[in-house]
Amino acid sequence: MKKLILPVFLLCFGFIASAQESKTSFFLDHNVYSYRINPAAEFDEKPYTFFALGLGNTSASLLSNLGASSLLYPTVDGLVWGLDDAISTDTFLSKFAKDNIILPQASVNILSFGHQGEKGRFNVEVNLKSDNYFYASKDVFAAAKDGLYTGLKTKIGTWAFQNMNVSTSSFVEVAAGYAHKIGDMVTVGGTAKLLLGVAGGALDFNSFHLTSSDGDNFYGSADAKLLLSSTLFKIGTQNVGGKNLYDFSSFQFNKVGLAGVGFGLDLGVTVEPVEGLTLGLSALDLGFIKWNSAVNGKIEYSNKKIDVVEDALELQVADPSNETRMLNYNIHLSAKYRMPFYDRLSVGLLGTYQKYFKEARLGVDITPVRPISIAISGAYNNFGFDFGAALNVRIPGINLFLALDSIYFDMTPQFLPVSRGITNATVGLAIAF
Questions:
Q1: Letter string b/e over residues 333-351, b meaning 16 or more CB atoms within 10 A of that residue's CB
Q2: pTM
Q3: pLDDT-based confidence at residue 338 (cuts at 50, 70, 90)
Q4: Judging by beta carbons within 10 Å of its beta carbon (0-12, 13-18, 19+), is residue 222 exposed, middle or buried?
Q5: Tell me: the pLDDT tens digits for 164-196?
Q6: For the chain, what percent of residues have pLDDT higher than 70?
Q7: How far is Cα 233 from Cα 419, in angstroms, rounded to an integer?
Q8: Are strands 421-432 and 58-64 parallel, antiparallel or unpaired?
Q9: What's the pLDDT score for residue 20?
Q10: Mean pLDDT of the 90-94 span
Q11: Backbone phi, then psi, for 337, in 5-degree steps?
């Protein structure tokens, strides 16, 4: 298997560690990280300063219409992969949608501090982020189940798919933000970000076609490219049959270094047209990272005889090249109304538009006493329905923040989603005074 692209597929997901920010937290009062959703978020009524080291705001999210039940199956001999001969093709393929998406993301706040005054607010952060994406059509799994296994054994059938995409990026984010109130109605804000790439990768399988010919042989055509960028490893090459191929048996760990550089920008505005009603618009993660290539490979052939899996998936060395990839942007449109009969109760609506994720979320917040704010929310997005809850506690010297955007969640004992995965968990602890 040393010539295969499959180890690369696993390598890409080995980096899974920018994350979805908690949407339910948007509805909370007194949340020091409210600028994460909108840099121009409402000002607290009292000035404050906050500082956090290592535990400021850490979140992990998983958005997917796949789960463990799509890939793992119980048998009398224990769990087996769906590609196993013990699992029928119809059973295996029934667990997949026409379009299958997995979006695992994570963000770890290393350092943050900031201050909010009466008219201005600034913040500085250092974060470690990982943003990952997997897309495959149902045809990809059909080709994997029958084409590359049963088909190669019998030399019968035709299997094809288009557009399987895997991407991963892990980077350090150094951010500085500022917001300013203009009069009594308008607040504007922005955050500038320097992005330092740790590891990145992209696999774009544009097309694959495998078919029987003359009754005894399989012939295939493929068009795919792979880019991995990291100083953490080295992969050697070897010449086989006049072709220069990557040799994954020569994989070696290397030193930590810079794999890419990029820039990002968050912009936001809020308006209070009438007392108690706040309207907001923000655009987050507008930017890019330019990745240096450590592995630049391709799978490219036409009408090639295929006898074993290695023949179909061998990775050839391509010319070195860098690649610029855009960040996974977020656009938020929001409205929040504080009840005139009880100013510690508010309701709100938050709309989110992202390249792979769209959602409308309705939330309610109550602050029975100033130190405690509790929010609940319900949402509908392109992965289904969602229900969340959040808590913010601010006592002298401490601000504790907990949020979960999905309370319903079927998991295995190993904490893997059974059917679909829609969740976002965030925890934060800051010194606030």
A1: ebebebeeeeeeebebbbb
A2: 0.86
A3: very high
A4: buried
A5: 999 889 999 999 999 999 988 999 999 999 999
A6: 91
A7: 34
A8: antiparallel
A9: 65
A10: 86
A11: -125, 125
Name residue, tokens 């999210």.
61
CB-based burial, 391-424: b 16+ in 10 Å, e otherwise: bbebeeeebbbbbbbbeebeeeeeeebeebbbbb
214: its two tokens = 């003359």
The model's pLDDT over 377-418, given as tens digits with 9 standing for 90+, comes to 999 988 788 889 999 998 888 888 899 887 655 555 555 555
The residue among 119, 121, 122 whose CA lies nearest residue 186 is 119
Q: Are 361 and 375 in contact (CB under 8 A)?
A: no
